[in-house]
Amino acid sequence: MRKTIGVFAHVDAGKTTFSERLLYHTGSIRSLGRVDHKTSYMDTDEIEQDRGITIFADQAVFKFKGDTYYLIDTPGHADFSAEAERSIQALDYAILLVSGSSGVEAHTRTLFRLLKSYRIPIFIFINKADMDSFNLERVLNDIKNKLSEDILYLNSMDDILEMDTKVAEFAAERDEKFLEAYLEGNYTADTLRCTLVSLIKKQECFPVMGGSALKGVGIDSFLELFAYLSPTNYGAAEDRPFTGRVYKIRHDENGNKLTFIKALSGKLQVKDDFMFEMDGESFSEKINEIRIYNSKKYEVRSQVSAGEVFAVTGLKSPGCGMDLAEGKINRISRASYYLTPALQSRVNILDETDTNTCLEKLRLLEAEDPMLSVSFQEETGDILVSVMGKIQLEVLEQLISKRFGISLAFEKPQVQYRETIEEPVVGYGHFEPLRHYAEVQLRLEPNPRGAGITFASEWHVDNLAANFQHLIENHVFEKKHKGVLTSKGTSFVVPWYEAEKYMHTLK
């Protein structure tokens, strides 16, 4: 089996140390590194080592009991939670660490809600259980009160194999079929396991174990249990056409764009191509190279299969969060996320770099982190970026200096306040460019809070070709919506370029 797992935690809960232990105990690395010694296998960037925190979501590969695991170590600091959210889209399972000394902290709750929103099955590991202040009952109650009542504490896999009464009762309370077998005394350890696997996938059971990542206590037991309760079935999907999801964008030391993909079905080979559509134009891009990354090192492959996590070169158009399908036209679109940066800061260039060059380099970083939302104000000549917090701005200054040799500073960030419509409103746009004719009618309706902008067409393709409808949609999303939207509603026009000689009226 192939499994992609992510490790999540509040900062300083021991997440990177835990990831290091997983790699060491499975023989993937020969020696243990430490964050405080700047020798961690996963935190390899100089900025990460200097600050002692994970900033970039890097991956490693290990094998356990014949299965291949793709491990993604995510940032724990709230300022870099956007990086964590993008990584979630590649996961089969998640491991959430809770500090045995601090309990469930604020960001722990945020991560738990985020994982639940993406329907990712969650295992919980209570770290730092070796500390004198650790109290198991207190931490378990904290998890129940702040995360979920559906937690199942397990000492080891033997609790399932020996059909421990508390485990069986837990399953019986949540599964009617197992309840019937339990009452009749007609169930086996395998039946219990299958029921727990189902409950875990439905997020109705969150297995909990404890130990110490620093001292290696409880790691082996956790690995055994995790392997036992986390099946995947990508083998059955290998014969289907290739589909994958882009979850990360990076650039290597030579400036090549790296598109990180989780293969969901089928197989992908070097020189395979994908068809894309943007602004009504279709084009293709070809895979030049496939890389399987293991920390900083990578293995070049000619082919990958469903369930694998890899990077490719050659694709320039897809962004984070986009789904890819071979043999179909993939429409270029901007992904939406649950987390939203609340701060915005103005860029001050401190050296002789011109504004256009600085903007170009910031756009490269925006491709890697779409939530930066880099914008240029033509009226003032200012460059603005959106961020999650002040620490992120400090890291950006270091990153830009290191990668591009540009010295800049960010002004004190300001909170971005937004208003939206409260009632439906209809807007019209009439266009006669170059003797062409088009009239667009748009109805704006309020969405649930946090849903962002969504688009739908009520016009049949028999009356208006699909490419023209897509063109309208593209312009809706690319438009920078400025100004205040009041409860009376508002309207905006959709730019229309190079229309056919005669266009149908949209209703």
Explain what you see.
The chain has 507 residues and is α+β, with helices and mostly antiparallel strands. It folds into 4 domains: 2-232, Rossmann fold (3-Layer(aba) Sandwich), CATH 3.40.50; 235-331, Translation factors (Elongation Factor Tu (Ef-tu), domain 3); 343-415, Alpha-Beta Plaits (2-Layer Sandwich); 418-507. The protein contains 13 helices and 25 strands. The chain has helices at residues 15-25, 46-51, 81-88, 106-117, 136-146, 158-161, 165-174, 176-183, 189-201, 219-229, 355-368, 390-404, 466-478, and strands at residues 2-9, 58-64, 67-73, 93-99, 122-127, 151-153, 206-210, 243-251, 257-265, 267-269, 273-278, 281-286, 289-294, 297-301, 303-305, 309-313, 323-325, 329-331, 343-349, 375-377, 382-387, 408-410, 414-415, 425-431, 438-444. Residues 483-507 have low confidence and may be disordered.
